[in-house]
Amino acid sequence: MIRDIITYSFYFLVLVLLQGLLLNNVALFDVAVPYIYVLFVLMLPFETPNWLVLLLAFVLGLTVDVFISTLGMHISASVFMAFGRSYLLKLIQPRGGYEFGVNPSFSDMGISWYAIYAGILVLFHHLFLFYIESFKFSQFFSTFGRAFASTLFTMFVIVVFQLLIGKSQVKR
Amino acid sequence: MRNLLRFFTKNSFIFLFLFLEFIAFWMLVANNRYQNSKVLNSSNYLVGNLYSTVNSVNDYFHLKAQNKDLAQQNAQLQSSSITSFVKVFGTNVTINDTVHRQKFVYTSAKVINNTVNKRENYLTLDKGALNGIEAGMSVISPNGVVGIVKNVSENFSSVMSVLHQKFKLSAKIKKSGYYGSLQWDGSNYRQAQLKDIPSHVKMDIGDTVVTSGFSLLFPEQVKVGLIKDFDLKEGSNFYDIDIEFIEDYKNLHHVFVVRSLLKEELEDLENESEVLE
Questions:
Q1: What ipTM describes this predicted complex?
Q2: Nearest C-alpha neighbor of A42 from the set A170, A169, A167, A155
Q3: Which of B37, B87, B138, B261 has the fewest C-beta atoms lying within 10 Å of its C-beta?
């Protein structure tokens, strides 16, 4: 339990710093910005109580917001995503429920399951975030396009990140 | 009452979600209204320090380029201190008690805006009238001629670049000393044309072209460019010479504004002689 807390605090720190100091400055073709910090919500264990996921998402969003000086924007998006996570997990639950000790990563759950799980949540998060950001519907389609492109980019970065830490887990 | 409590505990997850979202939106709205909300300031103190640490690390990566810049400026200062003094000769009359009299005064300035891709390019410098800059002063860089100050405000000055079709510069070939007029044709920002060099002059590709110092606007022997190509048209008495600027005007950061101390004296003298004719 304590070991989990330390591990996840470490991931939290790494993801937030990666987001705040590096990835915020990346804009592929001036449209796609990767928001890798959402991976923290994605990678929380299945057994995590729902209320804790919400609170952690709140703290996560707050930290990222302070970095970008957009107080409230990332909080609302990541809390929204954490809310969706609990329902999505029930919806795509394998027969017999989730095994104990298995984590929501694509090495444990398989690529197709993970693509659905992460893809839907990241898309939700990005749509929510980008529409909050533009705060109007006049640029509906361009905002949608930016959100979609960013989702693809974020997914790519998430996969790379998971491959990197996946190796270290095997070593342990 | 009991039912109400049960209702809350049953749906606690949704209520927590709504509560957190409410806080988030409240922050979003409040923060848009009051930019200096307390939370943002105190927490940004931490992030601000983090950013400045990252920046100071970043600075190390630019040290090499900055060193090079400084060395170039040092060389510039050294060479200008020799060429910007003129010897006062004539043993009968002693005007000053010094042997050398200063002809040019240099002020360093930073380029804060610059274009190269128009046909009439201007630069903006971060120094203006308060720093003693006046219209008509010349601007040079460690590697070449930059332009002439056109307009001055209190803190900024606007400079007509060499890359301007109306800019003409008296330049000479360093090796032979023959002078001509240098002008930019408006196409390639790395190249300009030198005209009026007579056909009997010998030159090679790669020869240095420097300022002639005739106008007294620019100091003498300031590097301008290298001869890239020359061509003598049939029946013409003058060469068409393409020169390549040594300075990359797209990458211009620090320049020197030159005040010519003897310019008015020379102009007065020249005007007088013209009137007498």
A1: 0.73
A2: A155
A3: B87
CA-based nearest distance A138→chain B, Å = 20
Q: Distance between CA atoms of B161 and B115, rounded to whole angstroms?
A: 9
Phi (first) and psi of residue B138, to 5 degrees: -100, 160
Interface contact A83-B17, CB threshold 8 A: yes
Please give the mean pLDDT across all residues of chain B. Answer: 78
Q: Which residues of B83-96 are buried (b: 16+ CB within 10 A; e: fewer)?
A: ebeeeeeeeeeeee
Q: What is the number of H-type helices and E-type strands within chain B?
A: 5, 14
For B84-117, how does the pLDDT look when each residue is reduced to its tens digit (9 = 90+)?
555 444 333 334 445 566 677 788 888 888 877 7
Backbone dihedral angles phi then psi of residue A38, each to the nearest 5 degrees: -65, -20
User: Among the listed ranges B33-42, B44-53, B120-129, B223-232, which one has the minimum average pLDDT value?
Assistant: B33-42
Report the residue from A21, A72, A82 with minimal CB separation from B25: A72
**Which of B241, B189, B179 minimizes the C-alpha distance to B212?**
B179
CA distance to A23, A42, A120, A125, B209, per residue, from A115 (Å) = 22, 12, 8, 15, 65
Write down the number of H helices and E strands in chain A: 7, 0
Q: Are B122 and B150 in contact (CB under 8 A)?
A: yes
What's the whole-model pTM score? 0.48
